[in-house]
Design brief:
The protein is α+β, with helices and mostly antiparallel strands. 16% of the residues lie in helices and 46% in strands. The protein has an 8-stranded mixed beta sheet with strand order 2-3-4-1-5-8-7-6, with helices on one face.
Length: 115
């Protein structure tokens, strides 16, 4: 399994409110805006991103970070094999990702996904 992208997931009431800040201070552009989540990305390096979300659209908790992998099913199988707490089941989401949430040994919730 290979990691394609790692992003911090910030929490805010209005995810789009930081657009000017992220553009002017960090040079990031809006790469995705679903209302409840906005992805800000570097124009020439789209894997450099920050996600800002109000609340997750389908999961019971907001993740602390998102990790895109090339094989989410293998990652899910490994998490189950290790006895990790699956916070959100393996799900095909309507916005085009397959994902699950897992709690790491430090208590952080990781959104593991593939496009």
């Amino acid at each position: 399994m290979e990691v394609r992208r790692v992003t911090p997931d910030f929490h805010a009431q209005d995810p789009a409110a930081g657009a000017e800040f992220y553009a002017e201070v960090l040079g990031l552009e809006i790469a995705m805006d679903l209302g409840w989540v906005v992805a800000y990305a570097a124009p020439r390096n789209p894997t450099a991103q920050i996600l800002v979300m109000s609340e997750d659209a389908s999961a019971p908790v907001n993740p602390d970070a998102s990790v895109e992998v090339d094989d989410v099913d293998a990652a899910h199988a490994a998490a189950e094999r290790l006895g990790c707490e699956i916070v959100h089941p393996l799900t095909d989401e309507p916005w085009g990702v397959r994902r699950f949430f897992v709690r790491d040994p430090n208590g952080k919730v990781i959104n593991v996904l593939s496009h």
